[in-house]
Structure formats: C-alpha cells, structure tokens
Amino acid sequence: MDWFESENFWTQFAPIMFDDARWAEAPTVAQYVKDIAKLRDGDSVLDAGCGLGRISVELAALELDVTGVDIIQSELDAARESAEAEGVPLKLINHDLRTFHAPNQFDCAVNLYTSFGYCASVEEDMQILKNIADSVKPGGTFIMECTSRETAVMYWTPGEEFERAGYKVVTHFEVVGAWEGLKSQWTLYPADTDLSKSPASKPVVDHCFVQRLYPASFLRDKLIEFGFSDTKVYGDFDKSPYNEHARTMVLIGIKK
Fold this sequence. Notes:
The longest helix is centred in the N-terminal third of the chain and has 14 residues. Helix content is 30%, strand content 31%. It contains eight helices and eleven strands. The protein is an alpha/beta fold and 256 residues long. The chain is globular and about 60 Å long.
C-alpha cells in the first residue's frame, strides 16, 4: 500500500498540512475556478483528490454540481460533514484516481494544491492525469495546481519548525536526483518539546515521502496529448505570468 492510501497518515497529518490559511483561501479559489471555466449554476465539476472537501464544499456553495473523488474514506466523511454543515449538496466517491474513469461527464475538472506526483512511477502519475482529462466533456475545462519543478526550485527551503494542531512540527527537505523529486520528512513532537534543550526527544510520529517534480511545460504538453487544444500555464489563479514571480503553477486546458 502506498503511503497516501493510509487512513492513519491523513488522520495525523491533514490538520498539519491544511492550516488556517489554506482553509481561508478556499472560497476565493472556488470563485476563480468558476470564473476561469465560465461555469454556470448547475454545471458539473469533478474535484479529483478532494480530500476534506476544502474546495468541493465552496464550489457547491457557488451553485455547482460537484463530485469529489478521493481514496481515503475518512477524508470523504469529513467532506460530507462539512457539506451538511454548510447546507450544500455534494456527491462523494471513494475511488483510486489511478483507476477512476468517467469519460466526458464533467464540464470542469480540478486537481488542486498538492495532490499530484506521489505515485510509485511516472506511468501511474500520467494515468491519473489522463483519467481526469478523459472525464472532462468536449469544450470543458481542466484546472490543475501543483508544485512544479520550477516552483520547488524558486521556493526551496531546507526545512522549518513551527507549532500547529497541538504539535511541534519539524520539516526537512531534500532534492531527489536532478530535481526529479522532493523528499519531505515531517516529524511531530509534543507541543511543549524544546529541541534546543532536548535534541534526542522522541517524536510522536515521523513520516517521509517523495513528491515527483514535473516541469510545467511537460504537464502542459501531456494535456495537449490527452486532448486539450488550448492549454496554458500561469503563475496563479488570476492568470498572472508563469515566471520568476509565480506564486504557484496553474495549468488551464480546454478540451477539444
């Protein structure tokens, strides 16, 4: 089983990886998605790798017909609770994106934040990308945000230490190969741990994983190969340039 299939991992790390800032930006990102894809009320959206429903719920609140797909049932349960609390309808499917296939069913598909590049092989990553692309109707839009090779280089840091969700969190990052991947180690300690005084303190949990880093141009060309005629790379959801000032990588494609 790959690490991202572990319920225990997400129970421990979801509150760490999705901090208050990530939740606060969700309504704005959802509005960008609706505007970019020129979606009308009732149009269908696939949130591929929806997780806790951070974006799915906000898209549903914009009167869109949203389907969230994720491999972790506990994440889907949390998304369902959020949707119920907000009073919005949300379809949720427990499925592996490597095998999920819904040809030409959605007006728009999204894969956002940091939900891509974790499979054991490039072929599996590309199968996910193709499956999502296939799920978009002709004339529909695919919006992808992820850590690209370029943004990983621009915002490289060896690690940091902070407190979140009741833990002291220590991160350490290493480059894999010729920037083919980024190895991330996340170590959680009790919140009152003082590592300067007790460097041998025992962590609550220590997890390491690798995210494969793709150049934006590679992903753009793959979408073109998978049937998108108008595919562009931007540095943010506002369609600012993908250059040395890019905040993130946003890929937008229109299906033939």
